[in-house]
Amino acid sequence: PLLKVQVHTKSNTKPNAKYQPPKPKKTIMPPTAAASASHRRNARLRREYLYRKSLASTESSDYEAKKRIRDALSQGKSLPTELRASYDKLKSEIDHEDDKHEGNTSHVDDEYGDAGWSDPRVCVTTSRSPSSRLKQFSKEMKLLIPNSTRINRGTHRVDELVDVCKTSDFTDLVVVQETRGEPDGLIICHLPLGPTAYFTLSGGVLRHDLDGGSAPMSEAYPHVILNNFQTQLGQRVGNILKCLFPIPKMDTRRIVTFSNADDHISFRHHVYSKENGNTTDKVKLYEVGPRFEMRLYQIKLGTLEMKDAETEYVLRPYMNTASKNTVL
């Protein structure tokens, strides 16, 4: 007689397990016509910017040659020997130049060429999973910078964040970072071409932590004071910081100060009032807050999501020991 053999197979489902329907697949919506046009425009602007930047060395050498020819002609001296072959071409270009095109241009003029024509629009956000203190700090940064908008980071990636800011015509993106609930990083990304400046933060004091309380926050456009930015890199950093703020009125009484001392930038925010009305020159300062110390450690010639962007400046470990050598 044949033996009946029962084969028991293991089942992947646990006994008495509840049935869970499969999750629906996410449908990726195609980009709209406006978003596609914005992507093409930003890509074209980036290609044009890189091309003009590649010509910077040639234009710089031509500028130096034209400057030497102008000096020789104004002083009545003979032309340098190495410039005699190209004198006719350079002299023709000199005759057709006006005061605006006489100077030397660089990639900085392309990045901030439209600064001052319209008020900047700044987007303020945080790193992922921010603490309550970092959220409060980002709210105060939003109140500090006029025409700024604070958004919740959520789970958005950096490239998605930059893409949304470019599409929404933001001029700058400010990202604040933290370590164990203490704000310790600030990233300023200029859009759509860059640059991106990275700062460390220390000694942060929020408005409600100020001794004696803080003055009410004014919404007027502030005067920006840049103190002791002497070098070319210092002027570059000062340009990045001041372009976050629109042009103020002359009679505004709100002041934002960036003071450099040994490459450490102290930030202070004040309002002032004149004693005895407007009859004297004595003023009284009221700190509004927040306050913090900054130190630049990197500048990249690109936006935040570009991993292969050229590095303009980076702080090296051996630079910390050169106490007498300041870069700003």
Strand content: 15-25%
Q: Main sheet, how many strands, which sense, barrel?
A: 11 strands, mixed
How many separate helices?
A: 8
Can you give the mean pLDDT? 81
Give the C-alpha Rg.
Answer: 28 Å
Helix content: 25-40%
Q: What order do the helices and strands follow?
A: HHHHHEHEHEEEEHEEEEE
Low-pLDDT stretches = none
N/C terminus separation = 98 Å
Secondary structure category: alpha+beta
The coarse silhouette is globular
Count of DSSP strands: 11
Question: How would you characterize this protein structure?
Answer:
The chain is an alpha+beta fold and 328 residues long. It is 29% helix and 24% strand. It contains eight helices and eleven strands. It has helices at 33-54, 56-75, 87-95, 99-102, 107-111, 132-144, 158-167, 232-242, and strands at 122-126, 148-150, 172-179, 182-190, 196-205, 223-227, 254-261, 264-274, 283-287, 291-301, 310-314. Strands 1, 2, 3, 4, 5, 6, 7, 8, 9, 10 and 11 form an eleven-stranded mixed beta sheet that branches. β7 (254-261) and β8 form a beta hairpin. α2 packs across α3. The longest helix has 22 residues, at 33-54. The chain is globular. The relative contact order is 0.10. The model has no long low-confidence stretch (mean pLDDT 81).
